[in-house]
């Protein structure tokens, strides 16, 4: 969220500006930490059209964070000071949200905060996993290596997610175009042909009657149908932002044949990869599990990991905390157990992460290979059915003459 503010600085001068923060309380806290007295603060766009907030469209992508991490690593390796690094990158950032965020991070660093604390004030841009890794790098004195490791880790995750999403773009696009063309045919072409067929007075084939009824429905109620779809889409979006909605949608995604297996492997790869990265940096097991819950991007696995973290705090092992969880395969539990017994948990998690990453890649490649023939069959059935519905009565009429 973006907030407008007016503040009084240490010299008694009143200035105004904007700050990006997850909530108004965080924005106020960030300004007060810099020693400012706040005289006015309000969310940008609040009270506008229907009170809607369009800051959703302003976001920082994973790709932006990957590139940023590589740039920070390079500058730290060149012995550039942290303050200078973030000032320079804030000026050069192409994404305006990222630019504002980096400027605020630089201001906080100048005010005496550490890099990790400064980054933690922007949870929408820098995840808890990212902040914990930076904190570990500060404690070990290897910030440039930490940012480079973060860039490589995030890049692998970004590539995996992009591959899975890109595999679905083609079929979704084809289906949308196909449905649009079919509706236009039903609304603009079929009514003219159906008028001719009806005037002849012959009994129409079943398929033709179905097509004509669909055409009449879209002609008479098409606008209302579109309005219902838009309203339904709006409420579905609102529902998907709630806790219950996220759980329902994630449960549905995991229950879909083949697609659910793909999502499960993707989540498991992310969990193992994040835990491995944090444990290798010296972060405790409990903190690693808790942080993995915040970045897994699944409400179901988030709850599972939070419950596992609570169990580990009471003395349970990682493998036992994952036992009897249907979302965690038994082979993964057994391998983690071996890692705990041999003291090679970090190595086991790395192996599991790479294994599930390969599984996701293979599943996506297979899905792409299946989609193309499936699309051809779907388009053939749709177009063939429509043509048959129109041509059959025309053929019957010509035969009767």
Secondary structure blueprint with pairings:
Elements: E1 2-8, E2 14-20, H1 24-33, E3 37-43, H2 62-77, H3 82-92, H4 96-110, H5 115-120, H6 128-140, H7 143-200, H8 206-240, H9 243-255, H10 259-280, H11 285-295, H12 299-313, H13 318-322, H14 330-342, H15 345-400
Antiparallel strand pairs: 1-2, 1-3
CATH superfamily of the largest domain: Type II secretion system (T2SS), domain F
Global geometry: globular
Radius of gyration: 28 Å
CATH architecture assignment of the largest domain: Up-down Bundle
What is the CATH topology classification name of the largest domain? Answer: Receptor-associated Protein
Report the strand count. 3
* CATH class descriptor of the largest domain: Mainly Alpha
Note the gap between the termini: 72 Å
Number of helices: 15
Total domain count: 3
Order of helices and strands: EEHEHHHHHHHHHHHHHH
- Main beta sheet strand tally, sense and closure: 3 strands, antiparallel
Q: Report the β-strand fraction as a percent range.
A: 5-15%
Secondary structure: helix percent: over 70%
Q: Which spans have pLDDT < 50 for at least 5 consecutive residues?
A: 47-57
Could you characterize what this model shows?
This protein has 401 residues and is mostly helical. The chain has 3 domains: 2-57, Ubiquitin-like (UB roll); 62-126, no CATH class; 141-401, Receptor-associated Protein. The chain has 15 helices and 3 strands. The chain has a 3-stranded antiparallel β-sheet. The radius of gyration is 28 Å and the shape is globular. 28% of the residues are buried. Mean pLDDT is 82; it is low at 47-57.
């Amino acid at each position: 969220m973006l907030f407008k503010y007016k503040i009084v600085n240490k010299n008694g001068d009143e200035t105004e500006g904007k700050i990006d923060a997850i909530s108004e309380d965080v924005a106020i806290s960030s300004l007060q930490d810099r020693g400012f007295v706040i005289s006015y603060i309000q969310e940008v766009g609040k009270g506008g059209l229907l009170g809607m907030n369009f800051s959703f469209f302003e976001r920082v992508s994973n790709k932006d964070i990957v590139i940023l991490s590589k740039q920070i690593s390079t500058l730290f390796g060149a012995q550039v000071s942290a303050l200078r690094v973030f000032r320079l990158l804030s000026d050069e950032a192409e994404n305006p949200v990222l630019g504002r965020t980096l400027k605020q991070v630089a201001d906080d660093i100048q005010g005496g905060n550490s890099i990790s604390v400064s980054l933690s004030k922007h949870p929408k841009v820098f995840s808890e996993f990212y902040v914990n890794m930076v904190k570990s790098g500060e404690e070990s004195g290897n910030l440039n290596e930490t940012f480079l490791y973060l860039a490589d880790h995030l890049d692998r995750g970004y590539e995996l997610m992009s591959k899975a999403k890109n595999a679905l773009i083609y079929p979704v696009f084809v289906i949308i175009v196909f449905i649009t063309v079919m509706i236009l045919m039903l609304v603009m072409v079929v009514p003219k042909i159906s008028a001719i067929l009806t005037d002849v007075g012959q009994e129409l084939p079943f398929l033709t009657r179905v097509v004509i009824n669909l055409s009449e429905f879209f002609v008479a109620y098409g606008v209302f149908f579109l309005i219902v779809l838009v309203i339904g889409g709006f409420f579905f979006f609102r529902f998907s932002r709630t806790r219950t909605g996220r759980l329902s949608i994630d449960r549905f995604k995991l229950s879909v044949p083949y697609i659910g297996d793909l999502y499960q492997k993707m989540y498991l790869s992310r969990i193992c990869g994040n835990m491995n990265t944090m444990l290798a940096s010296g972060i405790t097991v409990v903190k690693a599990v808790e942080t993995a819950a915040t970045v897994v991007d699944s409400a179901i696995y988030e709850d599972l990991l939070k419950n596992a973290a609570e169990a580990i705090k009471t003395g349970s092992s990682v493998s036992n905390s994952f036992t009897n969880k249907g979302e965690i395969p038994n082979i993964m539990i057994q391998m983690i157990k071996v890692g705990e017994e041999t003291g090679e948990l970090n190595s086991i998690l790395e192996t599991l992460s790479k294994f599930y990453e390969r599984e996701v890649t293979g599943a996506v490649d297979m899905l792409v290979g299946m989609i193309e023939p499936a699309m051809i069959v779907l388009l053939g059935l749709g177009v063939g059915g429509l043509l048959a519905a129109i041509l059959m009565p025309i053929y019957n009429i010509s035969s009767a003459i």
